[in-house]
């Protein structure tokens, strides 16, 4: 017999995890959005972020079945280090004369680095979920939709705030990324 309460409980749990994982994309999206961003770039970054929020937990779920004990805190340190580097780079670029940026958030590399940094946690959660019998399709779709939507909201909010902050928006955005990177590490 089909147990409705068990399925509802699993759905609620997956949605709470999806929103929690999407909060990284939201918070970091504010930082990127403060640099000043076009709507087309918001859509592109959010789409790639949603895809990474699908792919990373999927890979994690399969990995979790085999090597869950080997991962530990490595993924948090990697994500934190990446965010610290991106944040420091944004802060330096805010005060640098000229247009000599190493990684532009609108470039393919910048989009991939942002999406990877906010979806590494999804990989870790996927590893944990891989050890349990969770609905694979529901889980990865919920993670992807929440990650993408939260990214859009954060990027648009950051874009709105940056219009009022002027030239300091990029430095503030970099500081946000740097702070989140340090939180991941420590």
From TrEMBL:
Which range is the signal sequence, renumbered to this chain? Answer: none
Q: Which UniProt keywords apply?
A: Cell membrane, Ion transport, Manganese, Membrane, Transmembrane, Transmembrane helix, Transport
Instruction: Give the record's membrane topology.
Output: Multi-pass membrane protein
Q: State its location(s).
A: Cell membrane
CC annotations in GO:
plasma membrane
Q: Which residues cross the membrane?
A: 12-30, 42-62, 74-95, 107-130, 136-156, 168-185
**A GO term for molecular function:** manganese ion transmembrane transporter activity
The UniProt entry lists the main location of this chain as membrane
Tell me if Membrane is a UniProt keyword of this record. Answer: yes
Q: What Pfam family does this protein match (any one)? A: Mntp
In UniProt terms, what function does this protein have? Probably functions as a manganese efflux pump.
Which family does the record assign?
Belongs to the MntP (TC 9.B.29) family.
Q: What protein name applies here?
A: Putative manganese efflux pump MntP
The protein's gene is named: mntP
